[in-house]
Amino acid sequence: MTAPAGAVAPQPAPRDGARGERAGAALVAAVVLISINLRSVLAGLPPVIADVRADLGLSAAAAGVLTTLPVLCMGAFAPIAPRIAARVPMERALVACALLTAAGTGARALGTTGAMFATGLAIGVAIALAQALLPVLIRTRYERDSGLLTGAFSMALVLGSVLAAGAAVPLERWLGGWEWSLAFWALPALAAAAVWLPAALRPGTTVRRGGGAPLRGSGLAWAVSGFFGIQSMAFYASLSWIPSILEDGGWSSEAAGGLLAFGALCGLLPAFLVPVLAARAPDQMRLLLAIVLVPAAGLAGVLAAPGLAPLWMVLIGFGQSGALGLALALPIQRGGDAPTVASLTAMALCVGYLVAATGPWLLGAVHDATGNWTVPVIVLIAITLAELVPGVPAARARTIARSEG
Predict the structure, then answer these.
(1) For residue range 233-274, what is the model confidence (pLDDT) as tens digits?
(2) Domains in the chain, start-ordered, CATH in brackets?
């Protein structure tokens, strides 16, 4: 007896004979390299945004649009990925995304207002598609090692942010301007395209058209998407405002930026381990509780004892990076087959990044309304704890079933 389309079924035991190819070290390295580019081209802009505004005469609102545009694209264009996966080998699509990323990033060297907005759009589209396609490729072709590869994917996203944010100002100084600092990240994107090119030249991997469970009526699908959205909202709100919150607590601007980078570094290990552990467990409830309660405690610590910020940033970085790892793993764990994984990943990314874009704005608006950072931190703690609302049903050992006809 088959489950109705979109129904939730108990998670079946894995079948070793039908779990795809094994992933070698070269594939892990390729996943890491392309994933680094999904964040490095974004994280290099905020550290030099003041110079960009000064040179181009941008208002704060325009600069906010410039930094938010790729994130909005990541949500808006993710739903296209399943159609691409059904028509074009995903390895070739990833090469195309890397080349578009390289072209858009390199064009930032033009240093004009029009170029910055146009390249932000191009980069956002490329990242949206690559980030949605990579988990589907992992689930379709390398299901046996999905935990390892998703962990590498998640860790590399964090690593890309750390590298680009830390190198932005030194690169600006060494290369002679913010435009060259931004354009530098075209080189890793070209390297990623080169690494994936041999796989793109061989017969590639596609997902069969149709067959996936319809998701709009699935509570589990909305839970997975809601968890991705709320954890992304907490992360981007923290990324935008934690330095200002720490400065208000007595830290210098340089120290506050360093503490933010330190917290991100502390998140590398959980970003890798959480997807690995999630793939080995029938449900992810214990992981969920840890990655929600730990950063909530860290944020409360920032509010109560800002002088101990290094300790609190360890907790925040650990939990938020772990939450990203779980959010990336859940579509793979909850999707009953490759087409459903493709659609669920796209849905989670679409909902997630559209919700995430509201996080920085919300905390800024609360700060403007209250004139202090106490209430915004309380709001950020509430957002973090709210991850449990969709997270609990999403973490249970179930899959989204489809009709077999």
Answers:
(1) 998 888 878 888 888 889 887 788 788 888 888 998 999 899
(2) 24-209 (1.20.1250.20), 211-399 (1.20.1250.20)
